[in-house]
Known about the structure:
The structure is a single chain. By secondary structure, this protein is an alpha/beta fold. It folds into two domains: about 1-35 and about 215-235; about 45-200 and about 240-320, Alpha/Beta hydrolase fold, catalytic domain (Rossmann fold, 3-Layer(aba) Sandwich). Helix content is about 45%, strand content about 15%. Helix 9 (about 265-270) links the parallel strand 7 (about 250-255) and strand 8 (about 280-285).
Amino acid sequence: MEYYVWIIAAVIVLVISVFCAMCVTARVIYWNTLTRKKKEGWKNQGSDNPELREMYDVGTGYIKQFADKKIDLHTVNEGFNLYAEYYDLGFDRAVIIVPGRTEGMTYSYYYAKAYVESGYNVLVLDQRCHGKSDGKYSSFGFNESRDVLKWGRILHEEYGVNSIVLHGICIGCACSIFALTNDSCPDYFTAFVADGMYSTFYASFKKRMEGFHAPPFIVIDLVNMYAKHYTGYNMKVGPIDVIPKYSKPLLMLHGEADIYSVPPKAVELFEKAGTDKNQKRIVWFKDGRHSRLRLKDTELYDSAIKSFLAEIVAEHTADKK
């Protein structure tokens, strides 16, 4: 009898040890990937990755020609100091480019060209816990979405912008769709361009953990536990839950080789969007990878945005007048 007691005790100790190890692993993953370690971190300038470096260099090279049009902006929302750059090119329309996680305003220059050539001013921003802006914890777009609405009010009330398009990349898509489906979202937010929109951050992050050879089973739910503790939000809630409420023009840009925002989920998001079928488009990039679509095929990327703005958004905004 005593023999079995020792076996049971050993099993219990083993289970507890394994669980504690998973908790430690989850905490390390959370702190290393979803929190900012120092002020002005997460701005993605001069990355060692050759592709990211090319995107950054192309973007900064392009925006230099509008240096005399740049307005440095600062606002405070919910106690956080937030910073952005606004390129006022004299139009009454603007795009707000909402970058992905760890990416700052300077990285967003890369996506501006199609909008400038379509007659849009450009606002690029440092989200909470990115670059110059305050904050430590990423909330997967939930809190950040209210900051985007604040920037939109500034453009409308202080700079006379009457039509705002949100252009999101990865987690920036979640931020954008949360803003656009917020009950307080004004009508002058007129359209949404989504580059690599995922269904939930949980699903996307699970794929990343698999890529890092980290054990996703249980650990990711422990990561989510930490996320809910520090931010109040659940990684399992995402664009898939709110996009049925969205009814304005929608352009989805998606890669067939995207392993983080997988194509079947992109199709599901597209089909669930409340937008009229004549006002939504999805453009596929053969062999396109996550957050690398414009780099893969710049001409297709920019032409898709230009035609969307000219053929769908212009008609939609005209109907609203």
